[in-house]
Specification:
The chain is mostly helical. The chain is 76% helix and 0% strand. It is globular and about 50 Å long.
């Protein structure tokens, strides 16, 4: 069997998946561990420069902002240069940015260096999605998306624990260790990943056309995925990270610890279902999983504002995490179905990522205004309603997975 990216045979592991997929999964784990190292330390590190809480929050938002504005350029580079080189270049940019962040001497240096890391982040995120799209057999795209997400989740769960321990040696230390994990990820990709480079004569992808965003938008499944990506970014990556800690602090004693428990509960809920959800989307199609995930996420987010005890908050967070775990691999596999393995999809994938990043940036700001004016109950209710509203375009969308895979989970 000839591989999807090169003219040489594409080897597979005993799981039946291309070996290159496992290389990307291993690299994702290294990246996620490193990101988790600095996530709990960054706000305190910013505050150490004697700035306000708002200024410290801007440092966190700058990374996401640069990811958003550079995403179109990242998609263009992937289509022109090939995924593998863009992936490694992006990682190396974040290495330099992270080292500089750890060596920052004032707040403005910290803000610039951390923000520039977002450029590299969007490069390796888009190129990784493009690689997985090309490398994944159509009948295993959901399963592979679930594996990739699981690697990130495990890294994000373990990273903060290690980062908290490393912070005892100084708040700059986690940034240096993070740079090291990124170098490991770059090395893994550079040495072991065979596919994904710029097409060469004889390759199946030589002269491969890029899929225009306008053409992808004609597919109802892609349009629905943009909507659900936006509201998922709004809720899971924006409101949950920014508003849940404030809600816990306002509603419970020891709010910081309870907020951490709620966020960890969300991650545990997601990790418990994401792999099987990916397999189910390969077997039964993307739409049922996306719709189910949105409904579960929507109702559990809606009730968060009424949680007046810690067990209720934790339970709602676990259920919301399960909803996100069901939604994400099916949604990503649907976009991969639209792109296919025969066309370059950098710009299409960048647009999909931008939808999520836009939600993650806008969500905390707008829901913060709602909370200030009306209260937390209304803020969470609005976020839940948006998730439920995103079901509507999926009800009318065409299923993207034309040939569901009828194999057993272990095959």
């Amino acid at each position: 069997m000839r591989g999807p990216l090169t003219g040489s045979p594409q080897s597979t592991s005993r799981t039946g998946l291309p070996v290159d997929v496992w290389v990307l999964v291993a690299a994702a784990f290294a990246v996620a561990v490193g990101y988790g190292l600095v996530a709990p330390v960054l706000p305190q590190y910013a505050r150490s420069f004697d700035v306000s809480v708002t200024a410290a929050s801007v440092v966190v938002s700058a990374f996401a902002f640069f990811r958003l504005v550079f995403a179109p350029a990242g998609g263009f580079l992937v289509d022109k240069m090939g995924e593998r080189w863009v992936y490694m270049t992006g990682l190396l940019i974040v290495v330099v940015s992270t080292l500089a962040t750890g060596l920052a001497r004032d707040y403005w240096q910290l803000l610039v260096f951390r923000g520039l890391g977002g450029l590299g982040s969007t490069m390796f995120t888009i190129s990784a999605m493009a690689l997985l799209t090309r490398l994944s057999p159509p009948g295993a795209r959901g399963r592979i998306a679930g594996l990739y997400a699981t690697a990130f989740l495990i890294g994000n769960i373990g990273g903060p624990v290690i980062g908290g321990l490393l912070a005892g040696f100084g708040m700059r230390v986690p940034f240096f260790v993070y740079a090291g994990t990124l170098l490991v990820a770059t090395g893994v990709v550079g040495i072991f990943l065979r596919g994904g480079g710029r097409p060469t004569p004889g390759d199946r992808t030589e002269g491969q056309e890029a899929l225009p965003v306008a053409e992808a938008l004609r597919h109802s499944g892609y349009r629905a995925a943009l909507v659900s990506s936006f509201v998922n970014g709004w809720s899971s990556f924006g409101v949950r990270v920014a508003i849940v800690p404030l809600f816990a602090a306002a509603s419970f004693d020891a709010g910081a610890g309870i907020a951490g428990t709620a966020l960890a509960s969300f991650a545990v809920g997601t990790a418990s279902v994401v792999s099987i959800a990916g397999w189910l989307s390969d077997r039964y199609g993307r739409r049922p999983l996306v719709i189910g995930g949105l409904v579960v996420s929507g109702f559990s987010t809606l009730v968060l504002g009424w949680c007046d005890t810690v067990p209720l908050l934790v339970a709602a967070s676990v259920v919301a995490g399960i909803g996100a775990g069901v939604l994400n691999p099916a949604q990503q596999a649907a976009v991969a179905d639209v792109v296919g393995a025969d066309r370059a999809g950098g710009k299409v994938l960048a647009t999909f990522q931008m939808a999520s990043d836009s939600g993650a940036i806008l969500g905390p700001v707008l829901i913060g205004l709602v909370v200030d004016l009306v209260g937390y109950t209304a803020g969470f209710a609005l976020s839940g309603a948006l998730l439920l509203a995103a079901v509507v375009p999926w009800l009318f969308a065409r299923e993207t997975h034309d040939r569901p895979n009828r194999v057993a989970p272990g095959e």
